[in-house]
Amino acid sequence: PGSNTDILLANNWYEIIAVANYDSGNGTYASWNADQTNKRAFIYIEPTNPELSENDVQQKSPIKKGQNNQISKGNQISVNIPYEGVTTDTDLTLGIPESVPPAGNLSFTLNYRDITLSGGVMLQKPARISITYDDADDDGLVDGTTIPETTLIMYRYDAADGKWEPLPGQIADSDNNTISASTPGFSTFGLAGIPKFPEDAEIITGSSNSAPVRSSHRGGSRCGCIGLESLLLLGLARLFKRHRLRRKH
């Protein structure tokens, strides 16, 4: 601090204002200035390549080649890029998309996430992503939806094909409310499931080229059969719009 320290201490109750200077990047306090008239001191700080840049919407973190990189943003999302997953140092940005691609026939929760690598860097090996969903009341439904957590699947938006693709290697952890999966590249990600319908509703399925199907268990197969939800995910059955549901009398 030098001689300015005496000025600061001798005139008590200064308002301290810190200003970050990113020009030289030598990681030291560049200078101290005191404004005795207004009782203010300005501290100029020059940080060296901060390891983390974060706000409420996005977070940017450095990715190093030749090592395993584990990045997370709070308890919302985590990304693991394996050893030799990238061939050059870069930055990974975790964020919330400003706009979301059309969902099509999928029923998404609000847990959309954007993941990008700076400088056009591409993954050389699949990365693993874990996304958290909310179930504060622990009723098995994603908060704000009628989607059971047991039906959640992570999707990645393929901009080239213009459609959402389910990711391989899905692991559901209902204790920690997370879904994890493997991805060959980064894009926009989301969690989609199958809404729960009233217990007394009759589900009408079928199309011009498929026969009606009925599930022995709404959440899937417990008797060795293929459940309705599995058929839907495989594209072997479809649901008409909700207004086509008929209640039993």
Can you describe what's shown?
By secondary structure, the chain is mainly β. It folds into three domains: 4-45, no CATH class; 53-193, Chondroitinase Ac, Chain A, domain 3, CATH 2.60.220.30; 198-249, no CATH class. The chain is 5% helix and 34% strand. The chain has two helices and 18 strands. It has helices at 4-10, 228-233, and strands at residues 15-20, 29-35, 40-45, 53-54, 58-63, 69-73, 77-81, 90-95, 107-108, 113-117, 127-132, 153-158, 163-166, 171-173, 178-183, 188-193, 201-202, 246-247. Strands 4, 5, 8, 9, 10, 12, 13 and 16 form an eight-stranded antiparallel beta sheet that branches. The chain is globular. The N and C termini lie far apart (83 Å). This is ZU5 domain-containing protein. It comes from marine sediment metagenome.
At a glance:
This protein has 249 residues and is mainly beta. Helix content is 5%, strand content 34%.
What key attributes describe this structure?
globular; 249 residues; single chain; 8-stranded antiparallel beta sheet; Chondroitinase Ac, Chain A, domain 3; disordered C terminus; mainly beta
What's the architecture of the largest domain in CATH terms? Sandwich
Order of helices and strands: HEEEEEEEEEEEEEEEEEHE
Average of the residue pLDDT scores: 74
The amount of beta strand, in percent, is 25-35%
Q: Rg to the nearest angstrom?
A: 26 Å
The secondary-structure class comes to: mainly beta
Number of helices: 2
Organism: marine sediment metagenome
Protein name: ZU5 domain-containing protein
